[in-house]
Write a structure and sequence with these properties.
Largest sheet: 4 strands, antiparallel
CATH class of the largest domain: Mainly Beta
Strand order of the largest sheet: 4-3-6-7
Radius of gyration: 40 Å
Strand content: over 45%
Helix content: under 10%
Order of helices and strands: EEEEEEEEEEEEEEEE
CATH architecture of the largest domain: Sandwich
CATH topology of the largest domain: Immunoglobulin-like
Number of domains: 3
Distance between the termini: 129 Å
Length: about 250
C-alpha cells in the first residue's frame, strides 16, 4: 500500500498496529504431544511371577500413571500402583496363570491414554537330568557328586545315601542350594546315592545312582632288576604291582 494512504489531512503519518492473537483463543491440540509407546520389562524370576514393567511415553508435561492387572482365572482387577508419576512398577503374580497388565496415563490437560499387554506366569517346574562325579581316591570311598537340573524357579537339594549292607539312610546335606556334595563312604560296599530337588512352591524331582566302594587290594606281579656291576654285587631292583589305593613298600 502506498505511503500516501497513511497520511492524514494535516500531512502527518499515522501509526498503525496489528494486535497479536489472544492465546486463550488459540486452540492447540496436545493429542500429538501425548502418547503411550509400548511396554518393556525385566524378569526378576524366570517363571515371570515377578518382573519390573515399564511403559514408554511422550508428553510435554507431567503424566500420572495408574497400574493394574487383571487376573483371568479369578476374573478380578487388582491395582498395583495408583496415581504415581513413575512409569515403572514391579509386578508380583499371586499364582501361575494368565494376566492382563494394564496402565493408563493422564496428562495435565486431563487427557488419558491406556495400554495393555498379556502376561503368562508359568507353573513352577523342576527336572533332574543326571549325575556326574569326580572320585577323590581309587576306591570310590570319597567323591564329589553333582546333579544337572533345569528349573524356572529357585531350587534346594536334599542329598542322602542308602547303605545297602546296613539297610539304613544317611543324610549328606539337607535343603542346600548347591547341586554338588562330597560323599564320604563309611566302609566298602554298595550304596544308593539319592537327591531330591524342590522348588520354592513345593514341586519336587528325584534322581538316584548306584555306587560301589571297592575293597582295597594290592597284587605284586614280579621283580625286575638292572645290575650296576657285572658281578651283581650292586643292582637296582624293582617290583611291579597292581593296587586300587596308594601303596607303601618296605
Amino acid at each position: 500500500m502506498p505511503l500516501s494512504d497513511f497520511i492524514n489531512e494535516g500531512g502527518a503519518a499515522q501509526e498503525t498496529t496489528t494486535s497479536a492473537p489472544d492465546p486463550q483463543k488459540v486452540k492447540v491440540s496436545s493429542e500429538a504431544n501425548f502418547s503411550l509407546g509400548g511396554m518393556t520389562w525385566q524378569k526378576v524370576k524366570e517363571d515371570n511371577s515377578e518382573a519390573n514393567i515399564g511403559i514408554a511415553y511422550q508428553s510435554q508435561g507431567r503424566v500420572v500413571f495408574n497400574w493394574q492387572y487383571y487376573d483371568i482365572s479369578q476374573k478380578n482387577w487388582v491395582t498395583m500402583n495408583a496415581n504415581t508419576i513413575s512409569n515403572w512398577i514391579t509386578f508380583k503374580a499371586p499364582h501361575a496363570g494368565q494376566y492382563l497388565i494394564h496402565v493408563y496415563g493422564t496428562n495435565e490437560a486431563g487427557e488419558t491414554k491406556e495400554y495393555a499387554i498379556g502376561w503368562n506366569v508359568a507353573a513352577e517346574s523342576i527336572s533332574l537330568k543326571g549325575m556326574t562325579w569326580q572320585t577323590l581316591d581309587g576306591l570310590g570311598a570319597k567323591a564329589n557328586i553333582g546333579v544337572s537340573y533345569k528349573s524356572n524357579s529357585p531350587v534346594t537339594f536334599t542329598w542322602q545315601y542308602y547303605d545297602i549292607a546296613k539297610k539304613e539312610w544317611q543324610v549328606i546335606a539337607k535343603d542346600t542350594t548347591s547341586n554338588w556334595i562330597t560323599f564320604n563312604a563309611p566302609h566298602t560296599g554298595q550304596y544308593l546315592i539319592h537327591v531330591e530337588a524342590k522348588t520354592a512352591g513345593g514341586q519336587t524331582s528325584t534322581y538316584d545312582i548306584g555306587w560301589t566302594v571297592e575293597t582295597e587290594f594290592v597284587t605284586l606281579k614280579g621283580m625286575t632288576w638292572q645290575k650296576v656291576d657285572k658281578y651283581g654285587a650292586k643292582a637296582n631292583i624293582g617290583i611291579s604291582y597292581q593296587a586300587n589305593s596308594p601303596v607303601i613298600f618296605t
